[in-house]
Amino acid sequence: MVRAVSFDVDDTLIDYSVSIPRSLRGLFGTDADPDVWLTLMDALHPLYLDGTLSHTAYLRTRMAAMLTTLGRPVPDDAALDRMEQQRITLAETGLRLYPDVLPCLTTLRAEGMPLALLSNTDGRLQRRRLQVVGLTGLFDIIALSGEIGVAKPNPAAFEHVSASLGLTTADVVHVGDNPAADAQGALAAGNPMALLIDRTGRHPTPAGVTRIMDLREVPDLLRGVR
């Protein structure tokens, strides 16, 4: 029986389609291609997830790779850190929620469903973002890899959420946009259902995973498995 729901944050609840291009233009100028940045994220983020890169190393490597792509010199680590902080500040001015987020969360809370956040990111940074978009007070548990010391798809991340709710992983459904870290990770951890939010049809659907294109589908899906 499903007794709670956990959600990923970035590109699941928070829409970066405006903030990423804005931050790149502000930092690099008009020749910065957001698609190049997203390609670098796709290539490097798995190295952070599997522990090859620390979060700081991931950010520095991504920034250095973008500079190289643009044909610009790569500065020292301190300068890379300053550039990343500037990019973050620019990105936060354009943060917004997807339009399906609040209807979904409001319905689930009205139906008495405990809600959790499970995000692979720096704790301080993500908590500030959550506050900016008004999400902080809507969740019973906020689990951030930079604070709990473990990241998706490690089963321990999903187990941390369920234990914090006083439940087991068999009681919690996870919703996220990453096929490996979110969907397959949740199933491997013992979650009874993994919902892959794919608003643009970008990802193939892994075996055993339920793909949705709008978070407003979630309450109806869960009513059938409570």
UniProtKB/TrEMBL annotation:
Keywords, alphabetical = Hydrolase, Magnesium
Q: Which InterPro entries match?
A: HAD-like_hydrolase, HAD-like_sf, HAD-SF_hydro_IA, HAD_sf
Cofactor(s) of this protein: Mg(2+)
Tell me a Gene Ontology molecular-function term this record carries.
hydrolase activity
A Pfam family for this UniProt protein? Answer: Hydrolase
List the PANTHER family: 5-AMINO-6-(5-PHOSPHO-D-RIBITYLAMINO)URACIL PHOSPHATASE YIGB, N-ACYLNEURAMINATE-9-PHOSPHATASE
- Which NCBIfam families does the UniProt entry name for this protein? HAD-SF-IA-v1, HAD-SF-IA-v3
- Name of the protein this chain belongs to: HAD family hydrolase
